[in-house]
């Protein structure tokens, strides 16, 4: 590739990568506000409250926080939390796991997406990274 083409192409690739990171951080920051309003009465990132803590929830086995007293409905669900399953959960907890101790139906898909972006930002190997929103 000639240097001029590389300059153009690499510039485009770099700027899309950067704007993607910025967009993800923006989503997580917006999701954090929603989380504080709609989840933090019962949840925190690092402490079990009425509900279990959320650090690393994306990728975590369902109902697996040690010492937290889950309902049998949630324990029976099996598998791990993915963004898609969290979306299903927040759409209707009682539809996904009838008899669960959490009652919530969020109809707004955009709000669900932003909250899940926040949960992703406190999950994974770089969960304390500077591009991410800090936990409440
Ligand atoms: C009124 C209290 C309450 C609110 C508000 C609430 N939760 Fe929960 N949440 C719970 C309880 C209780 C459980 C445990 C459910 C069970 O054992 O059946 C739970 C479980 C969960 C789990 C499963 C965790 C695991 O370890 O498997 C996720 C994920 C979750 N909540 C996300 C959220 C999110 C995101 C919000 C905000 C949109 C939210 N919750 C709002 C009480 C609440």
UniProtKB/TrEMBL annotation:
<dbReference type="InterPro" id="IPR036909">
    <property type="entry name" value="Cyt_c-like_dom_sf"/>
</dbReference>
<dbReference type="GO" id="GO:0020037">
    <property type="term" value="F:heme binding"/>
</dbReference>
<dbReference type="GO" id="GO:0009055">
    <property type="term" value="F:electron transfer activity"/>
</dbReference>
<keyword id="KW-0408">Iron</keyword>
<dbReference type="InterPro" id="IPR002327">
    <property type="entry name" value="Cyt_c_1A/1B"/>
</dbReference>
<dbReference type="Pfam" id="PF00034">
    <property type="entry name" value="Cytochrom_C"/>
</dbReference>
<protein>
    <submittedName>
        <fullName>C-type cytochrome</fullName>
    </submittedName>
</protein>
<keyword id="KW-0479">Metal-binding</keyword>
<dbReference type="InterPro" id="IPR009056">
    <property type="entry name" value="Cyt_c-like_dom"/>
</dbReference>
<keyword id="KW-0732">Signal</keyword>
<keyword id="KW-0249">Electron transport</keyword>
<keyword id="KW-0813">Transport</keyword>
<feature type="signal peptide">
    <location>
        <begin position="1"/>
        <end position="24"/>
    </location>
</feature>
<keyword id="KW-0349">Heme</keyword>
<dbReference type="GO" id="GO:0046872">
    <property type="term" value="F:metal ion binding"/>
</dbReference>
<feature type="domain" description="Cytochrome c">
    <location>
        <begin position="26"/>
        <end position="123"/>
    </location>
</feature>
């Amino acid at each position: 590739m000639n240097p001029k083409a590389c300059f153009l192409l690499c510039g485009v690739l770099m700027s899309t990568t950067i704007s993607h990171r910025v967009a993800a951080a923006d989503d997580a920051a917006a999701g954090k506000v929603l989380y504080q309003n709609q989840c933090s009465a019962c949840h925190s990132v690092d402490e079990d409250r009425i509900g279990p803590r959320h650090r690393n929830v994306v990728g975590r086995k369902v109902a697996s926080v040690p010492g937290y007293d889950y309902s049998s409905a949630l324990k029976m669900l099996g598998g791990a939390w993915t963004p898609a399953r969290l979306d299903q959960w927040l759409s209707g907890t009682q539809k996904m796991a009838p008899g669960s101790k959490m009652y919530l139906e969020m109809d707004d898909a955009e709000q669900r997406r932003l909250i899940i972006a926040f949960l992703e930002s406190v999950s994974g190997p770089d969960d304390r990274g500077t591009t991410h929103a800090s936990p409440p």
